[in-house]
């Protein structure tokens, strides 16, 4: 799923992804998300792009969609 820079797809919340980068970006909106497979528990892993252009891996449980 992709979106333009104007409206975020949703917000990242560091619930399952708990490293230092995730903690820093907790609550930030993301603007693109590309599925990249699954983790050992079967959760879908996405690479997400924040408004500053940085990409990060996150599991689906950390992504609050705009319409939720």
| Approximate helicity band | under 10%
Largest sheet: 5 strands, antiparallel
Structural class: mainly beta
Trace the largest sheet across and list its strands.
4-3-2-1-5
Keywords for this structure?
single chain; 68 residues; mainly beta; 1 helix; 5 strands
Describe the protein in words.
By secondary structure, this protein is mainly β. It is 9% helix and 41% strand. The chain has a five-stranded antiparallel sheet. The longest helix is centred in the first third of the chain and has 6 residues. The radius of gyration is 11 Å and the shape is globular. The model has no long low-confidence stretch (mean pLDDT 92).
């Amino acid at each position: 799923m992709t979106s333009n820079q104007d409206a975020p797809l949703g917000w990242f919340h560091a619930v399952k992804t708990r490293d230092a980068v995730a903690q820093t970006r907790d609550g930030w909106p993301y603007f693109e998300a590309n599925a990249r497979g699954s983790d050992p528990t079967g959760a879908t892993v996405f690479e997400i792009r924040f408004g500053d252009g940085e990409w990060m891996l996150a599991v689906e449980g950390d992504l609050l969609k705009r319409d939720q």
